[in-house]
Amino acid sequence: MNARVPALLTVLSGSFKTQPLAFAALLDEAEQRGTTVDLAEVDVIQAAAEVRLAHYFRPAIVARIERLRSDDNTVMVLRPCELAAARDFPRKAGRVRMLGRFAGEIIDPFGSADL
Do 69 and 100 touch, CB atoms closer than 8 A? Predict the structure, then answer.
């Protein structure tokens, strides 16, 4: 049984034509730091952002993220990882912008609410 578990999630934004271009920007950020990022731990959201963000965050946080992203067409949600924890992430000259780290929930496919 899947369980929802609390997590501090990193939220970024940027303007990208496609999901692969957003992934490329994150891979570039990781390469600049000599680290890696597991793209399976990243959710790139370009459509129905409010609905998709609601899977992670309560309504007040979703509204705040929507305001912070401004004209950017892409939001990225990163699970806790080495890249997200990097001190200077993202770079000021990078293609992504930090919106913040927010308390949310992720699904743990190995967790069980019965344990």
Answer: no
